[in-house]
Amino acid sequence: MGGRRLRGVALVAVGLAAVLAVGACSAGGDSGSDAAAPQNAEGGAAEGSADRDQAAPGGTGGADLRVDQRSIIYTGTMQVRVDDVDTAAREATTAVTAAGGFVGGDRRSSQSADARAVLTLRVPADRFADVIDQLAGFGRQERREIRTEDVTEQVVDLDARIATQRARVESARKLLAQASSVDQLVALENEVGTRQADLAALEARKRRLADLTALSTITVTFLGRDASTAEEDTDLGFRTGLGGGWTVFLTSVRVLLTVLGAVLPFAVVIGVPLWLLVRWRRRRARRTPPPGGPHPGSPTPVGPAGGPVSAPPPVPAARSGP
User: What is the pTM of this model?
Assistant: First the structure.
């Protein structure tokens, strides 16, 4: 009995030792994995931040550009009332030329105090604000409107498309140099021409955007002291309607007189001979009697009750004897 008890105790002790060993191993594995997880997380975060830092200049760098690195189109519209329109226009031209720009358009109407001048000015983008303020100082500014358009994405897209299209043109030229038949030569020449035309169109768009971003556009209107504007011409009321109606009436009369003056020479050249011809035919028709009718001088026999005389009844022929 004592030996059996000892064996049982030994078996129980061995089982407990095995259970404790397995528990210690599992605890060590869990602690190791728990310790490695933060390290992996920290390493992944570091790698992610490094990847983002490397990708920022190429991917999201466009959003982080400074204003002076972006492609922006500036457009301004102004209306300034001055004492002398011609003098203000000359001073504006001088100011724009001194700023490195030029006059793109000049439209004037000189009528003393009712004069006006509309100038289209192209100035460098970095001098846009200075020129605007300088133009406003020539007189009393009545209206100013400034618009901006950011075309940075369009410029970047055009650069990428131009580079791709140039590569396509070069590849087509290489294939053209390796053409071995007339059909291949003709097909590749057409392909090269099409790709070069597409490349030229993209480059033209790029030049247009470069011009608009490099030189801003300012449209300034100089008005004389008594010159009216479009806002002043939109007044409503009885007097305005009466004036408008009278203006339309006078315009209609002038139009009718113009049409009459244009038709009168034709009426004289064609209408007078035609009227004389009609009159001559009427006179001739009155003098010529109708054919087969009674003589105008012979009286017409009248029957009873004023009616016409009927012809006498026919006489029967005499019968001969036997």
Answer: 0.48
CB 158 within 8 A of CB 210: no
**Over the stretch 32-51, which tens digit does the pLDDT of each residue have?**
444 443 344 344 434 444 44
Q: Would you call 210 exposed, middle or buried from its count of C-beta atoms within 10 A (0-12, 13-18, 19+)?
A: middle
